[in-house]
Amino acid sequence: MPTQISRRSLIRGITAATAVATLATGLAACGGDSDAATTTDTAGTVTVGQLSNGAATETKLKVSEVKSISAELPAAIRKGGTLKLGIGILPDGFPPLAYVGSDQKSITGAEPDLARLVAAVLGLKPEFSKATWENMFVGIDSGKYDAAFANITDTEERKKKYDFASYRKDNVGFEVLKKSTWNFDGNYENLAGRTVAVDNGTNQEKILLEWQAKLKKEGKNLTVKNFASKNATYLALTGGKIDAYFAANPGVAYHITQTAKSPNPTRSAGTFSGAGATLQGLIAATTKKDSGVAKPFADAIDYLIKNGQYAKWLAAYNLSNEAVDKAEVNPPGLPLDNS
Hints:
Layout: H1 4-14, H2 17-30, E1 45-48, E2 59-62, H3 67-70, H4 75-80, E3 82-90, E4 99-100, E5 107-108, H5 110-121, E6 125-132, H6 133-142, E7 147-148, E8 162-169, E9 171-177, E10 195-198, H7 203-217, E11 223-225, H8 230-238, E12 244-248, H9 249-259, E13 266-273, E14 282-288, H10 294-306, H11 309-316
Parallel strand pairs: 3-6, 3-7, 10-11, 10-12
Antiparallel strand pairs: 1-2, 4-5, 8-14, 9-12, 9-13
Helix pairs in contact: 5-10, 5-11
């Protein structure tokens, strides 16, 4: 995410309270920044959603090496046969994006699954390492990791040190009860007369308060609520005390899967760019600047988009509303005054 405040948004907006205890147990079993156990598929197959503990629909995808793309890799990586990847999931993980799986040792989630698909196109074996957010970047800087797939936002500040291959929209979104007829529809004016909960100190709170101020100038009211915990927020939603919860979109997507069979299922009521109205924020694979890795990554992602595996990967994690049309190397990122 672009700033420290947004990193808190990531942890608070994506990590569901019901998952924390399970993840903490798994991470304690795994230890620190060591290579994590990974599941191994047969040649040419990547199983998305393995060990996801209900966060994803397990989906087998056929993906083989594309020689014209793998030939773009730096010779050292190509000859080594391994793609070393940092995943910034310590200490608690953040479902559905990256966390310790139900076997309490393997790294799972949407981010490492895309890395596995990219590695398959490049003819490489993915090797994951758990890291804290800060140490993940240290690992890229030192050459310990070839890249990181960890919900990293493309920013102009980060481009001073890193290259990016974009693969997903960086969105925030509204969660409502499934029976609700309200939708955001990309228009803040649709929030007039509504009561919306948001986590305190997050990027989405900043956006919501800006909309509240605009509506106030128009003589309209938007009530913003903060609750002490996610459980309290969800209770307010199911109890009808709030109309919607505004949070990081992957967290919304995850919670929807968790409520699907409950008496009060929820749904998405629309998304908005985490970068604001003037720029679509993007999540990107992150590599050391001028390492020569970003372009083959982008070409591998484009191959997955064109051949349908990309859409199936997103659908497995209920993240289809964050799809991009193509991968880009170093696309416009959050400007320096907001990164």
